[in-house]
């Protein structure tokens, strides 16, 4: 099973640690694309900081992100599961996983990244600021870079397992599963039900996804189909409805009443 997560906009900057080494990251098939995006981002932020503020969708009060990006090649790094923060990652709480769950996370989780394509939880990365809808000089939209590069990396990670796609729409645009993979693709939508009315609530959608990932890692279940994943989630206490399979995969609706 491979679970694709979105990155977090906010990140915890490591206070110390060795500098970024792209060759040390998992999935070396992405190294060339990582170098292109990294060099373009660093060059923009170092040489044209005022232009970078606009290109990165920042405000004047967020100039510290430009300065941090300019120094990414020598900035201290930490494990990706410590750098990414926010609602989903708080609910996942990787630091408190059991040893067995941490071992599963190392091979079953991958975070979609505008800068690195995909990163594993143990990959050492610096804190950076680069949204999925950004475009960089000489590179263009970062989504386009990863659209061309991520397929082989996902294939290498997934093998014959189930792909559980928890990415947000912005990061789903980086790479879309081909139709032949659809029988092994599950997406998850979280619906909050109150008095018979259901709606998606962004904050709790992220939190519930984090809890789901944590529970799957702790439980050790390794479903091979969307239906088997639905059964595993039901066994873990969630209410799950399975949609029709399409050429994009099968959507599972997790219905919650308590937030």
TrEMBL record:
* Membrane-spanning segments: none
| NCBIfam families, per the entry | PRK02101.2-3
- Protein's name in the database: Peroxide stress protein YaaA
GO CC annotations, alphabetized:
cytosol
Gene Ontology BP annotations: response to hydroperoxide
Any Pfam family matching the protein = H2O2_YaaD
């Amino acid at each position: 099973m491979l679970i694709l997560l979105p990155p977090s906009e906010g990140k915890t900057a490591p206070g110390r640690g060795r500098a970024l080494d792209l060759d040390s990251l998992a999935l070396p098939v992405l190294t060339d694309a990582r170098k292109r995006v990294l060099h373009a981002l660093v060059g923009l932020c170092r040489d044209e900081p005022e232009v970078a503020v606009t290109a990165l969708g920042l405000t004047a009060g967020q100039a510290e992100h430009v300065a941090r990006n300019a120094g990414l090649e020598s900035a201290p790094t930490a494990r990706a599961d410590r750098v990414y923060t926010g609602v989903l990652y708080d609910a996942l709480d990787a630091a408190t996983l059991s040893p067995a769950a941490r071992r599963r996370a190392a091979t079953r989780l991958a975070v979609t990244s505008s800068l690195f394509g995909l990163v594993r939880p143990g990959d050492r990365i610096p804190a950076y600021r680069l949204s999925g809808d950004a475009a960089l000089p000489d590179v263009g939209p970062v989504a386009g870079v990863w659209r061309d590069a991520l397929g082989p990396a996902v294939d290498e990670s997934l093998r014959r397992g189930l792909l559980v796609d928890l990415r947000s729409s912005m990061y789903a645009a980086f790479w879309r599963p081909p139709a032949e993979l659809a029988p092994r693709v599950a997406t998850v939508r979280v619906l909050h039900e109150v008095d018979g009315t259901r709606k998606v609530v962004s904050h709790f959608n992220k939190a519930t996804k984090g809890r789901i990932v944590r529970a799957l890692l702790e439980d050790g279940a390794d479903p091979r189909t969307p239906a088997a994943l639905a059964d595993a989630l039901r066994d873990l206490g969630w209410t799950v409805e399975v949609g029709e399979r399409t050429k994009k995969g099968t959507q599972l609706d997790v219905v919650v009443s308590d937030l």
